[in-house]
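hey so i finally got around to running the thing on that chain from the lab meeting. sorry it took forever, my laptop kept dying and i had to restart like 3 times. anyway pasting the input first so we r on the same page abt which one it is
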Amino acid sequence: MSIDRRRFVNAALTAATGALVPVRYLSAQPAGNGAIPGEIAARSGSGRSVTLTASAVKDFRASLRGELLWAGESGYDSARQLWNGSFDRHPALIARCAGTADVIRAVQFARSHGLLTAVRGGGHSFSGQSECDGGLVVDLSPMKGIRVDPVRRQAAAQPGVLLGELDWETQAFGLATTLGTIPNTGIAGLTLGGGLGRLARKYGLACDNLRSADVVTADGRLLHASEQENPDLFWGLRGGGGNFGIVTRFDYLLHPVGPRVLAGDRIYTFRHARSVLTAVAELADHAPDEMYFDAYAIRAPNLALPGFAVGFEACYCGELREGERLLEPLKKLGKPLFDSLSAKTYLAAQGVGAKNPAYPAGRSYYTKSGFLVGVSTGLIDEIVRRSEDAPRAVRALDFWQGLGGAAGRVKPDATAFWNRQANYSLDLEAAWDGRSRNAVNVKAARALWSELEPFTRGYYTNLESGTDEQRLRTTYGDNYPRLVQLKDKYDPTNFFRLNANIKPASV
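ok and heres what got predicted. didnt touch it at all, straight out
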């Protein structure tokens, strides 16, 4: 049965390369209209200065169907902005790719000139590594094609697609795949780093639901990766981040979700902190796969509270009455200050279309994370203690069930994502306006995290840069040597280095 294309905003066709091409990009696009400077100063991957001649830039621009931008060119400043306002980086060039051919040409140009190269998908980068100073940004955000096959329960999507956009298309058929929890997150980085979300305990991580991918490797080849083709590369893509290439097409398995789920938050005054966190942890430890919990201490200025409040979010994707029965024990916690826990669409649970997003673009953000097998009394005591005197920039300390259940039943060596024994992620979230206090706020957040980190082992690479190699090795555990072998095979010069970087043996 064919797909009814009339139901899709982002209808797509299959190009000769096999990659999805959004309809609106089928005609030629302007590739930058301004005069090319005599030369452009750039930076190599090793940090040395590189000079790009006007003729080289002109030839590169002419080879692209999308835009090529540089400082002073119309659209450059908006194109270089990230969701995380902490970063204010100025790349030498931004190649806004219209399709796979543009990605291949951008990689070839960057290699031929030795340029530092960043890859941008949705631009939702906590670490800021999807932009760079002085290098080339391969910007995939214009690549928005989505195709849903409701009969086979599969979806194909390009790397510029955001979480909320893919949810919107798949939910038209009552289907979904595990994605993250913030709708303006790009699916590309999310999936490659593992992809924890509200459906992970029922259906596995985002990377567990990846069925195949098209990948542009560091030498400019386009490869198809699946269990049958290039299976070693496919293994590494599922949790190994952007270390092995640029994915230009993701093929996902979909599952029935909805039409409604039981979801929302309950928030209490902080004097109930220990009882709320303890009760949620106890219930979460024995919850069925359909249940997701996120328990938190959080600043709640919208509730007119001077300091922290405490609360939890739940999402139950099974039969609604059963979800209500499972949550019944939490009513003993008393009357909450805020309660949005109710039956709603899965899109509403994901925050798709929310007028006041929880994580607005442009603010400065900083996070730390670590995996937990369980939540101990000692950890709860520490969360309560640290929340009481937390720096102003710290907005939340939470433990959430993006793992466990079906995600935990995958063998650690089945994909690059190794931490299958974990059931929770412990997170510290900091946010503030402007960049003037970046250094002060980051230092304060790190100091607080140092008291919580001993409870954890490994961390979620999508939330941090991965500059601490020993911590990265702990995250990948027994899979790390195999990942180095893959890096040696597919990227021996460490061309793709702006990520939670797995260095090749030769570097």
